[in-house]
Design brief:
Layout (H helix, E strand, L loop, with lengths): L2 H4 L4 E2 L1 H8 L3 H11 L7 E4 L2 E5 H10 L1
Antiparallel strand pairs: 1-3, 2-3
Length: 64
């Protein structure tokens, strides 16, 4: 996959982030609930919608 295509939409919804990270959306919800912002996933809540930053999340995972 081309890196430019992967990060075309840097901030994505839960389903897209789950597909990118190859996990179920429920896994992201559980990690968000249990770990908050201490998890590997970079996320924000914007007007009641959870958005994940794919580029920063991948960067965090690579550094661990």
């Amino acid at each position: 996959m081309n890196t430019e295509d992967c990060y075309k939409d840097r901030w994505v919804d839960e389903q897209t982030a789950a597909n990118h990270l190859k996990v179920k959306p429920e896994t992201l919800r559980r990690r968000r609930w249990a770990l908050g912002h201490d998890s590997n996933e970079v996320w924000v809540k914007n007007h009641g919608k959870i958005l994940y930053d794919l580029w920063e999340t991948d960067k965090r995972i690579e550094n661990k």
